[in-house]
Amino acid sequence: MGKFVGNITTNGNVRDGFAKYWNQITPENEGKWGSVERSRGNRDWSALDRIYKYAQDNNIIFKHHVFVWGAQQPDWVGRLSGGEQQAAVRDWMKAFCERYPETKYIDVVNEPPPHTTPSYKNGIGGDGASGWDWIVNSFKWAREFCPDAVLILNDYNNIEYENDHNNFMRIARAVIGAGAPVDALGAQAHDAYKINTNTVKGYIDKMASLGKPVYITEYDIGIADDNQQKRVMEEQFTMFWNHPSVPGITLWGYIVGATWRDNTGLQHPDGRLRPAMQWLMDFLERN
């Protein structure tokens, strides 16, 4: 299949014609633990079932977002004892992996400190000997239950800003060195459009020096002006596409008025493509 170029659900649904444009799908919110298991032991898989089935039926890649994250986590987890927290996290991963065995990619830990810290961090290992045992354990459990998936350590600002990049690299080195089965690194890239493309490439190069592929996981371009958005798309997407260490790119929404960040939409609700999207489809020969 080569490199994939994917996108996310739109307001909880897979939009008609999704597979015409994208060959990988990530649930935007539907796969977050807080969405699936609002009360302990009562899991609502209905949205994920629909999205997973769409991926299977259309022969596109299904990516899971996310196992462990210090946001959109169930309220009840923070009130458990440490032992119960560990059991709950393992149960969550196990149940997901049993239900969706063809999941190809998983954001195992998203936005590690200082960006977010799970309420149950200490219950799943705390800092420990590595300083990041809770991350190490999260990856080991993900490998145990989803042995065939590509396991990703995902963060934002790590290909845009030096301090964030350096912090991410420090964490990645530590957890990989402590035996975490990290298969790949993820760069959300929400702010990349604001940054010189050569600077962004330099940070990707440094991440790749750890010997892991780098996935662009949440790319968007928050520019209202059509021509400016297209110019950034041409320049940055081409760099991502040609980078030998980037095997896949996920864009974070595409329908105008239904994206997480303002002005990031690429297709109007009536089907018209913004110029950046038209260029992208021409580039990918997906017209």
Key features?
287 residues, alpha/beta, TIM Barrel, 8-stranded parallel barrel, 9 helices, 37% helix, 15% strand
The tally of beta strands, per DSSP, is: 8
Helix content: 25-40%
The main β sheet shows up as: 8 strands, parallel, barrel
Rg calc: 18 Å
How would you describe what is shown here?
With 287 residues, this protein is an alpha/beta fold. The protein has a single domain (4-284), classed as Glycosidases (TIM Barrel). Helix content is 37%, strand content 15%. It contains 9 helices and 8 strands. An 8-stranded parallel β-barrel has the order 1-2-3-4-5-6-7-8, surrounded by 4 helices. Helix 4 (82-99) runs parallel beside helix 5 and helix 8 (226-242) runs parallel beside helix 9. The longest helix is centred in the first third of the chain and has 18 residues, at 82-99. It is globular and about 55 Å long.
Question: What topology does this entry show?
Answer:
Blueprint: E1 4-8, H1 18-21, E2 24-26, H2 33-36, H3 46-58, E3 61-69, H4 82-99, E4 105-110, H5 133-145, E5 150-155, H6 162-177, E6 184-187, H7 197-208, E7 214-219, H8 226-242, E8 248-251, H9 275-284
Parallel strand pairs: 1-2, 1-8, 2-3, 3-4, 4-5, 5-6, 6-7, 7-8
Helix pairs in contact: 4-5, 8-9
Brief rundown of the structure:
By secondary structure, this protein is of the alpha/beta class.
